[in-house]
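Consider a protein example.
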Amino acid sequence: MRFTLYTEKTPSDCVRALTERMQAPRSPLDGWVEKKGRFSLTLEGHVIGPFKRRTRMDGEIVREGGETVIRGQVAEGAPPSGQLLILFGLLGGALLLLLLEQIALALVCAAGGLIGYAFARGDWENSDRLLAEIERTLKASPKPIKKPSAKK
């Protein structure tokens, strides 16, 4: 998913705020931020049982037309209905392969279903958390900042 956020902070203030947030003692964020505004952040979240998924967000902070714009992309995953479709579709395929006595392919299909489900669910949850962290840390919003109109 691609995103665009707007903030009143300068790019250097944004870089400083992200760096401080990553270095905070209990920060869930990991990654790097360049002085020129490019960044890559990761967040790890539990998916199911012992399985964890690490999701990465890449972006850039630039100054355009007098305002600071944050553009980036993050893996979005799949909504809950899509997650179940992946899981049950591949597990159903594995069952069909077992009925056809293709045990090795059935195991591969079942493993693919579980891995696909873990990736889809982990990215679905982590992408929202990453965007919320960026918005909170940089006081950013998806809506452009309204400038006060000049009174005549």
